[in-house]
Specification:
Layout: H1 3-6, H2 9-16, E1 22-26, H3 32-47, E2 54-58, H4 61-75, E3 83-86, H5 87-98, E4 109-111, H6 113-126, H7 136-148, H8 153-159, H9 164-182, E5 185-187, H10 188-201, H11 203-212, E6 215-218, H12 226-236, E7 242-246, H13 261-264, H14 266-269, E8 274-278, E9 280-281, H15 286-296, E10 308-309, E11 317-324, H16 325-341, E12 349-353, H17 359-368, E13 373-375, H18 385-398, H19 403-409, H20 419-432, H21 436-441, H22 451-473, H23 476-486, H24 489-494, H25 500-521, H26 527-536, E14 550-554, E15 563-568, H27 585-599, E16 602-616, E17 619-622, H28 627-630, E18 637-639, E19 655-659, E20 665-669, H29 670-681, E21 699-702, E22 706-716, E23 719-726, E24 730-735, E25 742-743
Parallel strand pairs: 1-7, 1-8, 2-3, 2-6, 4-5, 6-7, 9-10, 11-16, 11-18, 12-14, 12-15, 13-14, 15-16
Antiparallel strand pairs: 16-17, 17-19, 19-20, 21-22, 21-25, 22-23, 23-24
The protein binds a DNA duplex through helix 5, helix 10, helix 20 and helix 27.
Length: 744
DNA sequence: TACGCCCCAGTTTTT
DNA sequence: CTGGGGCGTA
């Protein structure tokens, strides 16, 4: 294998630097997967590193699967002994072995966001927290942030001792965590946090994994949160064989706790780190790259770099103004059909949007026009009611302490066990300090219920116990069929008059296929493993390019993928970037990165569309054209129809028009509203000054030092050192990025 | 206990 | 506009 022929100079260096910390800053389309896979192959072939000594972490299961496939094609079957998976899958695997150290059982259940919500609801009810004071959504979000930053309930409580509201959150966090443990369940964040907890509390366990994973690789490093960072740090701090790949410009998950400092500070954490930049883009035509660069360069908080093209300019970026969202969809589909007639395959095209709600219009038209399409995300298959019901049965069989699942199906199908009964049982369980299932097991000891109701509960209990026994002798697929039949669930759907229930039956059949497929693939199929795989898949994982259909997905889901033709739709200030971005510079920067990710998905052709009128919540609203379109220089874009004059920057891009209930247009000017608010609250206007603003002679104002004149500037490692002669305070040296300066 | 009607919140983004 | 949840009634 002649790597030097296969790789460019930087790629070669990144591939062959195996020992010690390595940061690969890989711009979009710069061949980082190529580097990662060849690097793994190089490690094994040239350096005799064993596959089981390597831990490679990716962002999605799909990325993991692809990487595994590509590594396998380079080194053969031995690739199967390597851990290539997501943070969550790897940690779940570790926890299945080690979690007993923390007092959980190995057959723990993984709770998704719906389960979380229902558990938190219980918690708030038990704490008698009024919904108006704290919703479960807020509580969950705070708990999640805490877990992502490794703040445990006790420390959380301490931290907010004197904070009335957060103190309530702290109590909720404590009880929530207690219930999770009682249910023998972990939420998504726990999967990472508990692994870290074990590593920190039990050095001998940590050592075991440090010895095992002598080489660690992390992809999409810019999207790791603090807990994940800590995990990697613990594993690698001794041998320091850590290779991370990331691109600060593609960090789009800060809303979920991803901490960009992990990448910006890597060199500080590992002083000996080698840094390799991959800046040559092999994916996109020149104009597409130029467009991406012209959008992202507006961000201040980034490592300076520019993607370099390897292809020629290609066509211009095509901009289309639609009358409304309906017409936008019609245009896109028409264009797709045209491209298809010209010889493109449908699978070469993708529609990327900001929110899942936008997919509906496109689905409608695609269906109408009989264009094959694949929808990624939105209502996931596993999120459908009937699937969740069935999963609840399976989870309960697997782990009887799982109250969330128990409560979900105890009266589905109807068994005359209503809410009051469940509450009575739950109360008794809480009182006795046992699980809900225990109370049901010992039902006869307590006289809680009327005879008839008690009989119903006993019947339910016998059924679950029966499932439990059958689990031992049946395959998962057999168990699924048995449950659907014995519980009466299938029967209720089949005899229902509701037309929706017909498709529910189909979905359950589809689910059975998923199970059968799993049984074929798995080495040792088990209910436990099956459930875990279901909980940890995302929809992007389902994406495959086998059949010829166009792809519909959010910009977030598109990360890591590429398409010859990309339609970015809904480019309107208020939608993308969303309204909150227009007032919060940090959110705006993240939105810009998201735009950058979207643009760089395109290989050959890029369309950007916006609609003058759009249905939002059943109302017609009018947003102005997106800043992201305006950011692209005119010489590399073409308007497919006439531009709307009012949409120019010089008018005011931040005016939102909407129709009130009398169908009258009302203007809402975001900037003016903001100015008014500032006047009232007396906020200083914090316009960030750029380097171009701060030139010698410029008058500036500082809140503490007052008015002064810039006398000199000097470059300082990406920042600018500014020397200012203040009128009353003398001469000061300030760093531009931190000094709260404004023009005077 | 079961069912139907009404109200309201939701649209950022997901492992 | 849509779906879920809460509340009141049979």
């Amino acid at each position: 294998m002649d790597l030097k022929k296969l790789l460019n100079e930087e790629q070669y260096e990144a591939t062959t630097t195996v020992e010690g910390p390595l940061l690969i800053l890989a711009g979009a389309g710069s061949g980082k997967t190529r580097v990662l896979t060849h690097r793994i192959a190089y490690m094994m072939k040239e350096m005799n590193i064993r596959p089981y000594e390597i831990l490679a972490i990716t962002f999605t299961n799909k990325a993991a699967g692809e990487m595994k496939e590509r590594v396998r094609s380079l080194v053969g079957e031995t690739a199967d002994n390597m851990w290539i998976s997501t943070f969550h899958s790897s940690c779940a695997k570790i926890l299945r072995r080690e979690i007993e150290a923390l007092g959980y059982k190995k057959d723990f259940t993984i709770y998704d966001s719906y389960d979380q919500k229902s558990l938190m609801k219980q918690v708030l009810k038990e704490l008698s927290v009024d919904e108006k004071d704290l919703t479960e959504k807020e509580a969950i979000s705070h708990v999640s942030t805490a877990k992502n930053t490794l703040l445990n309930p006790v420390d959380f409580k301490k931290k907010y001792e004197y904070h009335f509201r957060m103190n309530k959150v702290a109590d909720a966090y404590i009880l929530y965590q207690k219930k999770l443990k009682q249910n023998n369940a972990l939420d998504f964040d726990d999967i990472i946090m508990k692994t870290v907890e074990i590593f920190e509390k039990f050095p001998e366990i940590l050592e075991k994994y440090q010895r095992k994973f002598r080489y660690v690789l992390v992809d999409e490093y810019q999207d790791t949160n603090h807990a994940q960072y800590r995990l990697i740090n613990l594993l690698t701090k001794d041998h320091q064989n850590i290779c991370v790949v990331g691109d600060d410009d593609q960090s789009i998950y800060q809303f979920r706790g991803a901490d960009i400092r992990n990448i910006l500070d890597f060199e500080m954490d590992f002083p000996d780190a080698k840094v390799v930049k991959l800046e040559k883009n092999y994916r996109s035509m020149g104009n597409i790259l130029a467009a991406a660069n012209s959008v992202i360069k507006n961000n201040r908080d980034r490592k300076e770099k520019t993607l370099k093209k390897t292809k020629d300019e290609g066509g211009k970026i095509k901009i289309y103004r639609a009358y409304d969202d309906f017409e936008e969809a019609r245009f896109v589909v028409r264009e797709m059909q045209r491209l298809y007639r010209e010889g493109r395959n449908y699978k070469e095209m993708a529609v990327l949007y900001r929110t899942n709600a936008q997919s509906r219009k496109f689905e409608d038209i695609l269906m109408q026009e009989a264009v094959p399409y694949k929808l990624i995300g939105g209502l996931k298959f596993y999120d459908r009611k009937e699937i969740k019901d069935l999963l609840a049965y399976l989870r309960l069989v697997n782990n009887p302490f799982d109250e969330v699942s128990l409560r979900r199906i105890i009266n589905v199908p109807k068994r005359k066990i209503g809410n009051t009964t469940v509450e009575k049982l739950q109360e008794n369980a809480n009182h006795q300090g046992e699980s809900l299932f225990d109370t049901i097991m010992n039902l006869e000891e307590y006289s809680l219920l009327a005879a008839g109701t008690q009989a119903s509960v006993v019947k339910f209990r016998e059924m679950i116990l029966d499932f439990n026994e059958k689990q031992l002798e049946m395959k998962v697929s057999e168990l699924v069929e048995y449950i659907l039949k014995t519980s009466g669930y299938m029967k209720e759907l089949e005899t229902s008059k509701n037309p929706e229930d017909e498709s529910r039956v189909e979905n359950l059949e589809e689910f059975l296929n998923v199970v059968l497929e799993y049984e074929m693939k798995a080495e040792e199929p088990s209910l436990q493993e099956f459930l875990e795989s279901v909980m940890l898949v995302s929809d992007v994982d389902q994406y495959n390019e086998a059949d010829d259909s166009v792809t519909l997905m959010t910009l977030h889901s598109a990360k890591g993928l590429e398409f010859p033709v990309v339609f970015m739709v809904g480019l309107e200030n208020g939608l993308f970037p969303s309204a909150s971005c227009l007032t919060d510079p940090n959110e705006m920067e993240e939105a810009r990165r998201l735009a950058y990710v979207g643009i760089t998905r395109a290989m050959e052709e890029l369309y950007m569309t916006y609609a003058e009128n759009r249905m939002v919540f059943g109302r017609m609203v009018s947003y102005p054209v997106s800043d992201f379109i305006l950011d692209i220089p005119s010489n590399i874009k073409e308007h497919l129809n006439e531009e709307k004059k009012v949409h120019h920057r010089d008018v005011n891009p931040h005016t939102i028009k909407y129709k009130d209930k009398n169908m009258k247009y009302v203007d809402y000017n975001v900037e003016k509203a903001l100015e008014d608010a500032k006047k009232i609250l007396d906020f200083p206007d914090k316009k960030v000054l750029g380097q171009e603003d701060v030139v010698p002679g410029a008058k500036v104002k500082h809140p503490k030092f007052g008015v002064g004149t810039v006398v000199a500037t000097a470059d300082a490692k990406g920042d600018l050192k500014v020397t200012i002669a203040f009128d009353n305070q003398g001469i000061k040296n300030l760093m531009l990025s931190i000094a709260p300066l404004e023009l005077a």
